[in-house]
């Protein structure tokens, strides 16, 4: 299966999910994360949910991170460079949706890529080798390449992996884990 097919298949499967199923599966993913040995770190990068794309509701993960007194980092996309600027999420952070409905911080305290210990990575599809398929712009691959080598990359998905994504490029950054409502995949 190539990336285009994987994107299409995942988007169609997401469309079939009810709001209640999204909430139940999102909560199950958050509970799976609690079983992982990742909670001794300090800086955790989390994407904010694009509701229009029926993404995982990351609010549950946000609550876990806040409850564990972790530093939560969120990003703003820089479309001119396909890069991301990361900001510490605080009580004063103002969030605004960009033109693609991505919730982003307006501004705040900037956090360098190399400070981030764990990244929860959005995705549309992934395979049994840890290759990820996103929306296709390369924001996360560009970001993950700048992180330190030991940064833990955790994909979050409602679905099981594809057998193999055929058209993987050398610019694609593999996941270390992918967490679904039912299982934790380690790559």
Structure description:
- The protein contains four helices and eleven strands; from the N terminus they run H-H-E-H-E-E-E-E-E-E-E-H-E-E-E.
- The protein is of the alpha/beta class and 187 residues long.
- The chain has one domain: NagB/RpiA/CoA transferase-like (Rossmann fold, 3-Layer(aba) Sandwich), CATH 3.40.50.10420.
- The strands form three sheets. It has a seven-stranded mixed sheet, with helices on both faces. Strands 4-5 form a two-stranded antiparallel sheet. A two-stranded antiparallel ribbon has the order 7-8.
- A hairpin with a 4-residue loop joins strand 10 and strand 11.
- It is globular and about 40 Å long.
- The two termini are 19 Å apart.
Q: What's the quick description here?
A:
The protein is α/β, with parallel strands linked by helices. 25% of the residues lie in helices and 22% in strands. The protein is globular, with a radius of gyration of 15 Å.
Largest sheet: 7 strands, mixed
Query: What is the quaternary state of this protein?
Result: single chain
Topology-level CATH name: Rossmann fold
Return the CATH class. Answer: Alpha Beta
* Beta-strand content estimate: 15-25%
Which terms summarize this structure?
187 residues, alpha/beta, Rossmann fold, 7-stranded mixed β-sheet, two-stranded antiparallel sheet, 22% strand, 5-formyltetrahydrofolate cyclo-ligase activity, 5-formyltetrahydrofolate cyclo-ligase
Topology:
Blueprint: H1 3-15, H2 19-34, E1 43-45, H3 59-67, E2 71-78, E3 83-88, E4 95-97, E5 103-105, E6 118-121, E7 125-126, E8 132-133, H4 139-146, E9 152-156, E10 177-179, E11 184-186
Parallel strand pairs: 1-2, 1-6, 6-9, 9-10
Antiparallel strand pairs: 2-3, 4-5, 7-8, 10-11
GO molecular function: 5-formyltetrahydrofolate cyclo-ligase activity; ATP binding; metal ion binding
Binding site for substrate: 50, 55
Catalytic activity: (6S)-5-formyl-5,6,7,8-tetrahydrofolate + ATP = (6R)-5,10-methenyltetrahydrofolate + ADP + phosphate
């Amino acid at each position: 299966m190539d990336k285009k097919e994987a994107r299409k298949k995942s988007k169609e499967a997401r469309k079939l999910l009810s709001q209640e199923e999204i909430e139940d599966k999102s909560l199950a993913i958050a509970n799976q994360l609690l079983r992982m040995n990742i909670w001794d770190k300090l800086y955790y990068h989390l994407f904010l949910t694009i509701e229009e794309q029926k993404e995982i509701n990351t609010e549950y993960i946000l609550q876990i991170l806040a409850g564990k007194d972790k530093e939560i980092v969120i990003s703003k996309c820089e479309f001119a460079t396909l890069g991301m600027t990361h900001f510490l999420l605080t009580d004063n952070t103002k969030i605004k949706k960009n033109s693609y409905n991505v919730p982003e911080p307006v501004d705040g305290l900037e956090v360098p890529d190399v400070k981030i210990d764990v990244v929860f990575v959005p995705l549309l599809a992934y395979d049994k080798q840890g290759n990820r398929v996103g929306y296709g712009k390369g924001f996360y691959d560009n970001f993950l390449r700048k992180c330190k080598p030991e940064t833990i990359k955790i994909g979050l998905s409602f679905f099981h992996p594809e057998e193999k994504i055929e058209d993987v490029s050398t610019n694609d950054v593999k996941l270390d884990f992918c967490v679904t409502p039912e299982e934790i995949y380690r790559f």
